[in-house]
Amino acid sequence: SFTDTFSTKSADDYDHFSRITDYSSAKSQESSEAENKRFEKDLKSRHRNACKEMDNGKYKLAIQSFEGILADLLTRYDMNHERIGTALHNIAVANLRANELSDAKDAIEEAFRIRKVALGALHPKVGDSLVEFGIILMALKENDRALKVFLEALEVREEGMTNAKEGPERQQGQLHLAKVLHNLGCVYTELDQFDAAQETYNKALEQQKASFGEWNGKLRSKGDSTKPGFLTMASTICNLAYIELERGNHDSAIGFLNDSLEIQKVLLEADNKLILTTMQNIAYVHCLQSNYGKAKDIYMEIAKLQQESYVAYAKRGWHTSIKNLIYCQLRLFDFESAFDNLRKLEDVLSTQEQTGTSAPSSDLQTTHELMGEVNFQLARLPSITEYTQRLLVGQGCVLCECQPGEFHDAVDAESWFPKRPTKGSKMSGHRMSYA
Question: Are 231 and 263 in contact (CB under 8 A)?
Fold first, then answer.
């Protein structure tokens, strides 16, 4: 029998069998370790590629890449593992960038739940997911819920600061706290709670300055790691400007916007969207104050940057900027310059109408109408130099009944008054992390 045969084996046979078993087990362990190394190496490579796709604006591809990483992780880990939470966090951020807000919300809610279970409610990574969760809720206009989420994130960040050691760890904690405060201020602004928003933005600025110092007009080196922090500072300052604008404090708003613009111009390309938007807001406030000369100069600079830019969003904005410039020139009675720019605008709109791109026919029609009115003024009025001199000496307009300082109502351009630009600030989130 098997038992009899086995019982007759010698001690040497037992040792030999044991060595074979140990050898087989060792080989199996080596094979498993090698397989794990290959798995991690492949996963890191795919993660890097997905992040590159995000940087290049290929969000759909990035989503597919991150979802593939999640699928592979699920073959090795249970649903409540920390790495599953991180993978879902990355998927949520990619969907947010792709403006797939419903999918982003589903992913970040699950990421937050898993991380909270796996790591504890006050872990920094839980704070990361709460910040992204709040940003997604704001994008969905769920501001009341976003407020609760950011307040929870604030609690996590404040807890992190109490345990942070002096040095890089505390500096990082201050930066994370500043981001939450910045975003919390954005929610208060959307809820029209301007006093709370202003107080929160000022707290954010305090943490930013504590983390990387005051802005001194330049970075310490080309690759200075404080650049993202200073960009966030510029956005926070912009947000303070928007509060002042809501309150009608125009001079204060311009002061904050100029402070923000100073930082942006050092850190960003001249045609960057943030720079252009900040300049548009400054010019708009000047128009509210009837400072058309200052507004004209800014709109002229914006239009030039947009015309020379290779970036699509900048070129698309030229149409609006040139209209704003024309309005200012008309308010300054510079009919000759206004007419020249109207002709440029007409050429662009005509081309767009012929090619079926962008501008509606109504834009071309109103441009033609305004050109006719301006051309009529050019035919009946003296040169701009003589006209200005007459106004300066108090004669008013000798060709009509306008009194000194009154706008010449013969040109009806009020419908061209610059519209309030979009806010140039943005929410402050976190980078992708390897799952």
Answer: yes
Maximum Cα interatomic distance, the chain, rounded to a whole number of Å: 130
The tokens for 416 are 């061209």
Q: 56: Cβ–Cβ under 8 A, 6 or more apart, which residues? A: none
Tokens of 21: 């078993």
Q: How far is CA 120 from CA 82, 129, 145, 176, 182, in A?
A: 11, 13, 22, 18, 25
C-alpha 296, offset from chain centre = 27
CA distance 157 to 137: 19
For 218-334, where are the alpha helices, taking DSSP H only?
A: 227-246, 250-267, 273-288, 292-308, 312-316, 318-331
Say if residues 184 and 150 touch (Cβ distance below 8 Å).
yes
pLDDT reported for residue 279: 97
Supply 377's token pair: 């003024």
Q: How far apart are CA 181 and CA 155, in angstroms?
A: 11
* 237, two tokens: 């300052």
What's the one-letter identity of residue 74? L
Q: Is the pLDDT of residue 219 over 60?
A: no
pLDDT score, position 389? 58
CA 96/CA 88 separation, integer angstroms: 12
pLDDT at 340: 95
For residues 92 and 107, the answer to whether their CB atoms sit within 8 Å is yes
- The more confident residue out of 326 and 409 is 326
- Whole-number percent of the chain with pLDDT over 70: 80
Vertex 141 angle, CA 238 and 124, to 5° = 70
The DSSP code sequence of 391-435 is: HHTT---TTSSPPTT---TTS--GGGSPPPPPP------------
Structure-model confidence comparison of residues 346 and 11, the more confident one: 346
* E runs forming strands in 10-87: none
Distances (CA, A) of 15 to 12, 19, 23, 24, 43: 5, 6, 12, 14, 42
- The residue ranking higher by pLDDT, 24 or 332, is 332
Q: Which residues contact 231 (CB under 8 A, 6 or more apart)?
A: 263, 264, 267, 268, 274
- Say if CB 246 and CB 194 are below 8 A apart: yes
pLDDT score of 206: 93
The pLDDT score that the predictor gives to residue 184 is 96
Taking Cα atoms as reference points, which of 99, 104, 28 lies closest to residue 67?
104
